Amino acid sequence: MVIKIFKPVGILDRIQAKKLHLEVDNAIKAGSKIALIDMQAVTLIDSSALGELVVLLKAIRTKDGKLCFCSVGQQPKMVFELTGMEKVFHIFSDQEAFHQHQIAINPEHHLLR
């Protein structure tokens, strides 16, 4: 299973989220099945970016892909919780937790790292 990792930085607003959406969409078109967004360097996410992430999630699902997040900081985590998106998005504590989950559901995953 092909996994592509994205690492946005700073403030995730509508413009940055649209760029991220385009990058993820291109990766899915190129054969990736899972997009992992590492949010470690994201300091703030606004409501328009959250809306774009929801649109991205729907687009990935139509292509039988999966959208996951890891290393979500305090402010983005609070936004996800206040909007209930932590129940919709696949969120992992860090990249290692994500990879351990992938190994648990697909034992061959460790060969892809």
UniProtKB/TrEMBL annotation:
GO terms for molecular function: anti-sigma factor antagonist activity. It comes from the Bacteria. Residues 1-108 form the STAS domain. SUPFAM superfamilies: SpoIIaa-like. Gene3D superfamilies: STAS domain. PROSITE patterns: STAS. This is Sulfate transporter. It comes from Stenomitos frigidus ULC18.
